[in-house]
């Protein structure tokens, strides 16, 4: 919802670049005040891929998609992330491909098809392109979750959160400078940007990296089960978005997909004896 409000005023790339800079610098300031040590030594190349997969690319793709399609439809497509994570994890040898996950894959793909085929918005080439862009963002999140589980298992969550946001800010900066807003954004867009940076980024990613280490990528990304529901409600209540029978049918199939993924195995916890660690280190 915040992206849908702010993207038209700021532009997708500029919005996301400001978002990650605000988030990264605020976390860096917090680390300085509290004396937390942050070091990226020996992980610069790994962080480069992480910041692209988990922040810079998907953030921008979602904002680009929402320039054409409603927030609720975008959120439901992003809700297929756990299904895509399960499939990718199976191909990469992280988790087994069970019968439940196969059913989840089919249900998720069918859900996206119903959402797109029976959407109340016109099925123009721009709409279909936006749907594809949103689906690509979900793929990035899926690969990003697996990459974190593989490469950053013993890395401090707070350091990962800071490095990802600042790194994404650097990656997006050249393009953002070329796509500056043409006029001053309205107050509601500014508030949406601030909520996006501090609530949906700082707080969310501190929790995210902690869960990736202790619950595995598939189980962690099953939080996407909540995104379609809240985005649908928010889109109807605050953004005046239209809901059709196709919306409900797609939501049911995507929800079924998420159910089978979260019940389909160990949730990615292949390593035993993973002790719990403090969230902020």
From TrEMBL:
Q: Where along the sequence do coiled-coil regions lie?
A: none
Q: Which residues form the EamA domain?
A: 2-116, 130-262
- Membrane topology reported for the UniProt record: Multi-pass membrane protein
Q: Where are the transmembrane segments?
A: 18-35, 47-63, 69-91, 103-121, 127-148, 155-177, 189-209, 221-239, 245-262
InterPro entries per the record?
AA-Vitamin_Transporters, EamA_dom, EmrE-like
Primary location group: membrane
Compartments it resides in: Endomembrane system
Instruction: Name the domain of life.
Output: Bacteria
What are the UniProt keywords, alphabetically?
Membrane, Transmembrane, Transmembrane helix
Q: Name one Pfam family in it.
A: EamA
**What PANTHER family does its record include?**
AMINO-ACID METABOLITE EFFLUX PUMP-RELATED (PTHR32322:SF9), INNER MEMBRANE TRANSPORTER (PTHR32322)
What family does the database annotate? Answer: Belongs to the EamA transporter family.
Indicate what this protein is called per its UniProt record: EamA domain-containing protein
Organism for this UniProt entry:
Kroppenstedtia guangzhouensis
């Amino acid at each position: 919802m915040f992206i849908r409000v702010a993207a038209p005023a700021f532009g997708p790339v500029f919005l996301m670049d400001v978002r990650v800079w605000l988030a990264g610098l605020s976390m860096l300031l917090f680390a300085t005040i509290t004396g937390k040590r942050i070091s990226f030594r020996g992980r610069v190349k790994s962080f480069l891929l992480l910041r692209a997969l988990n922040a810079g690319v998907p953030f921008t793709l979602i904002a680009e998609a929402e320039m054409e399609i409603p927030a609720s439809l975008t959120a439901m497509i992003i809700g297929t992330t756990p299904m895509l994570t399960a499939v990718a994890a199976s191909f990469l040898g992280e988790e087994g491909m069970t019968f439940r996950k196969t059913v989840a894959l089919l249900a998720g793909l069918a859900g996206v098809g119903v959402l797109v085929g029976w959407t109340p918005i016109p099925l123009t080439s721009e709409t279909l392109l936006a749907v594809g862009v949103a689906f690509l963002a979900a793929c990035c999140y899926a690969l990003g979750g697996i990459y974190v589980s593989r490469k950053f298992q013993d890395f401090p969550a707070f350091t990962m959160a800071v490095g990802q946001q600042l790194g994404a800010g650097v990656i997006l900066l050249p393009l953002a400078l070329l796509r500056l807003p043409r006029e001053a954004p309205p107050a509601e867009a500014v508030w949406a940007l601030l909520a996006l940076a501090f609530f949906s980024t700082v707080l969310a990613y501190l929790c995210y990296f902690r869960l990736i280490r202790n619950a595995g990528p598939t189980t962690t990304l099953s939080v996407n089960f909540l995104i379609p529901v809240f985005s649908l409600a928010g889109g109807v209540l605050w953004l005046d978005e239209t809901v059709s029978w196709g919306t409900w049918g797609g939501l049911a199939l995507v929800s079924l997909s998420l159910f089978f993924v979260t019940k389909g195995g160990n949730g990615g916890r292949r390593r035993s004896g993973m002790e719990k660690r403090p969230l902020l280190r």
